Amino acid sequence: MSISTTIKSIQDIMRKDVGVDGDAQRIGQLVWMLFLKIFDDREQEWELFDDDYQSPIPEELRWRSWAADPEGMTGDELKQFIDNQLFPRLQNLEAVGDDQRAFVIRNVFEDAYNYMKSGQLLRQVINKLEDGIDFNKAQARHEFGDMYEQILKDLQSAGNAGEFYTPRAVTEFMVNRADPRLDEKVMDPACGTGGFLTCAIEHKRKNYVKTADDEKVLQASIHGVEKKPLPHLLATTNMILHGIEVPNQIRHDNTLARPLISWGPKERVDVIVANPPFGGMEEDGIETNFPTAFRTRETADLFMTLFIHLLKPGGRAAVVLPDGFLFGEGMKTRLKEKLLEECNLHTIVRLPNGVFNPYTSIKTNLLFFTKGQPTRQVWYYEHPYPEGYKSYSKTKPMQFKEFQAEIGWWGSEQDGFAAREENEHAWKVSIDDIKARNYNLDIKNPHQDEQISHDPDELLAQYAEQQREIQALRDQLKDILAEALSGSTESARQEETA
Question: What is the pTM of this model?
Answer without folding.
Answer: 0.82
